[in-house]
Amino acid sequence: MTLPKIELIHRGRWQTLSNVPPARTLLDLIREDLRVSDTKEGCASGDCGACTVVLGSGAQAHTVNSCIRMAHSAHGLQITTASDLSVNGQLHPVQQALVDHHASQCGFCTPGFVMSLYDLYNRAQGRAVSREEAMEAISGNLCRCTGYRPILDAAMAMHLYPLPKASPAPAPAETSSERDPLDPHYALPTSLRQLLPLRARFPKAQIMAGGTDAGLWVTQQHRQFAQVIDITRVAELQRIEQYPQHIAIGAAVSIHDAFAALAERRPEVAHFAHRFAGRPVRQSGTLGGNVANGSPIGDSMPLLIALGAQVVLMAWRGGRMVHRHVPLEDYYLGYRQTVLKPDELLCWIVVPHPHADEQLHCHKVSKRLEDDISSVCLVLNLHLQQDHVREVRIGVGGVAATPVRATRTEAVMRAQVFNAATVAKAQDTLAQEFNPISDMRASADYRRLLLRNLLQRAWLQAQGQGLVQLEDLP
Which domain holds residue 434? Predict the structure, then answer.
C-alpha cells in the first residue's frame, strides 16, 4: 500500500517526503525525515511549547505545536524552525536579543521561545512590543530554568537589532505535485463539494482540523488512523460571515480568529479567549473542531451555549448538499457522543448578535492561569429590564459528561428582580443542578462550590464592584 507523499518548503527549497503515514506528527517529520534537531519534544501534548514552529508564509504564517500537528497538514506549506533564522552566521534579531539578555540556561525550551517571539516580531513589523504583548506571545511556552524576566526583556528589545543582510533563496512558486487531494489515506479537500461526498463515502474516516485534540490521541493513546479527512483547506469553512442578526463562523476558522470576531461585538470575550490556551494552540486549533469534539471541559462550548449558538450540520444526499440547524446544547447526547449522523459534518457555528441590554460574564477556574484545562467554566448571559431578569442563559463546563446549559437555574432567575435574594436562590439551584465527578483537577464538592462562587462573582461584577478576581488587581 502506497501512502500519500508530502511536499513542503523548508529553507527555501521544496522537500518531497514519500509514503508518510496519516498519523505521523509534524514533529516526527521535522526531526526524523528533515533531520532538523532544534525542534524538541517536551510534553507531546501541546503544553510546553518546546516543539513550536511557524507554519505557512507571509500573512498566513503562524505558530503551531508540531508535536500534536499532523504532518500531512503541512503539505504545500512552508515550515520554519529556530535553526532556519540565522543567515551566514548572523543571528536573527530575536536570537541575538535572547543571547544578549542571557535568556537561556539549559536551552531545551529556547527554540520554542525563539519561534513564538519570531511570530511576534513579524506581526510587530519593526515596532517595539510591550511587555503584555510579549507575555501573550509566549503564553504557550514553559521555561523551568531562567524564569521569564530575561525572555521578556529580550522580546521588548528585539526591534533594536538589524536583520541578517542576506535572505534564504525563495522557494519555487509552486510544486509539481500529483497528489490527489481526495486520497482517503489523508484527504485535503478544498471545497464543500469535495468534502461532503467524501464524508458520505468514508463515514468512519477520522475528521481532522488543527489536531489540538486529535493529536493527543496519537501521542498519548498511540492511535493510528487508517483514513483521515482534513477540513482545514475547505474554502467555505475558512470564512467568517456577518449577517444582520448573527455571525456565522466556519468550522475551519482558527480559535484565535473566531474569538477575535466574537470580541468585536462582545469585548468581554477577549480576556476569556486569552485564558483558553496559549497562542500556538489558538492559532492551530479550530472552533469547529473544539465544538465537534465535545470535551466536557472544552471552554468554547459554555460560552457559545450562553450566547444561544446553533451548529449547522451538513451532508451530501441525493446528489446535493443538505443541512440542518441544531441548538448547541442539544448537539451533545453523552460523553463524546453527538447527534451527528455518519454522513454529516459540523460545518458552521451560528452566533446571534448581542442585544443592547446584554451583560456577559465569562469565568474560568483552572490550576494554572494560562494554557490550562478548566476545572469549571461558567458563562452567564444576562438581559436586564428595569432591574428584572428579562432573559438569562448559563453555559457550564466541567460539571457533567458534556458541556451543559443550566436550565433549572435560569428558570429560578427569569422574570425575577435581580438582587441578592434571587442570586442566592440561583446559587443553591446551580450547586444541585449537576452531578460533577472528582478527578485530578477538582473534587465534586469543590466544583459545586465553584459554581456558587462564580455566580456570586458575576453578581458582584454586575453591581459594579471592580475587584472580584485576581486579574482585577492593579
Answer: 364-466
Q: What is the CATH classification number for the domain harbouring 241?
A: 3.30.465.10
Question: In 3-state terms, what secondary structure has residue 176?
Answer: coil
216 neighbors 45 (Cβ within 8 angstroms): yes
Beta strand ranges found along 353-417 (DSSP E): 358-365, 376-385, 388-397, 404-405
Q: Which three cell numbers stand for residue 119?
A: 511570530
Tell me if 409 sits within 8 A of 394, measured CB to CB: yes
Residues 352-379, mean pLDDT to the nearest whole number: 89
- Separation between Cα atoms, residue 98 and residue 118, nearest integer Å: 11
Looking at 18-135, which runs of residues are DSSP E strands? 52-55, 62-65, 78-80
Q: Convert the pLDDT of each residue in 427-440 to its tens digit.
A: 999 999 999 999 88
Confidence of residue 28 (pLDDT cuts 50, 70, 90): very high
Question: E-assigned strands of 59-114?
Answer: 62-65, 78-80
Backbone angles phi, psi at 380, to 5 degrees: -110, 120
Report pLDDT digits (tens) over 176-225.
567 888 898 999 999 999 999 999 999 999 999 999 988 999 999 999 99
What letter represents residue 176's amino acid?
S
Assigned domain for 186 exists: no
